[in-house]
Amino acid sequence: MPSPFNVTEFIFLGFSSSQQVQRVCFVIFLLMYAATVLGNFLLILTVLSSASLGSPMYFFLSCLSLVEICYSSTTVPKLISDLLAERKSISVGGCMAQLFLMHFFAGIEIFLLTVMAYDRYVAICKPLHYTTIMNRQVCAVLVGTASAGGFVHSIAKVLLIFQLPFCGPNVIDHYFCDVLPLLKLACSDSFLIGLLTVANEGTLSVVSFVVLLASYVVILLHLRTRSSEGRRKALSTCPSHITVVTLFFAPCVFIYLRPSATLPADKLVAVFYTVITPLLNPVIYSLRNAEVKKAVKNLWIRTVKLARDRG
């Protein structure tokens, strides 16, 4: 069997072969990445500095924002730098690290979204026991479990890819290292590895989606006996979560829950879940949540006042 280390680096074809398109994309993606980091960091800072956002829901939201920064940072900075580079290369070690980190943070995000759905279930269906059930220790354990789940999910993919020999060619028709493009470069039959990869991703996505769906079905059934005003108040925080879940799971289903083959649209879909979704999440949670908007406003007022006092 050829050695997996016959190839020492991989070459990305990148997002586009047109220099003009690459320069335009450089400006757009740079601004979007900066907005992603700043927006999610602002949300984290707002939650940490606001006493009114001390509930578990906002703790999980701040964790999600941190994950979004890390998730976007595994691919977008490399994409931005490669847009101005003639030779877009990455070492085998760097490729495996990027693959691991990307799926590690994606796995954490899936588990966190599931945890957030459970949090909404407890808050709406068991309001009198909410603070007891979702205490600080439980929240910390849930976030730790999400991290452990992300690690297992990601390391399984990397170990599967390590079973494949790469002896050339080494050109990846993408702008980052992912499972499906790497399977195309393997020197041996990768059908079984591709099948196991789909099973890995499929199991995680399907189980998480079923838990999310079950949570909201139970919530809706529980709210049948409440008044329309009570239902509106109870569900006020749910649309944001449902929107984020949809934005995250839809591209994942398109990319990973299908036979191991690459499609021309994969790059555009990848831009959606690596660049656009991490940018939209803080916007969605801020615009649709009165408490967050009020806390951001108060944080801005305090910051301006502090700056004036120091001046």
UniProtKB/TrEMBL annotation:
Keywords: Cell membrane, G-protein coupled receptor, Membrane, Olfaction, Receptor, Sensory transduction, Transducer, Transmembrane, Transmembrane helix. It is a multi-pass membrane protein. It is found in: Cell membrane. CDD domains: 7tmA_OR4A-like. The chain crosses the membrane at residues 20-45, 96-118, 138-162, 204-223, 235-256, 268-287. Residues 39-285 form the G-protein coupled receptors family 1 profile domain. One of its GO terms (molecular function) is G protein-coupled receptor activity. GO terms for cellular component: plasma membrane. Its main location: membrane. The keyword Transport does not apply. It comes from the Eukaryota. Belongs to the G-protein coupled receptor 1 family. This is Olfactory receptor.
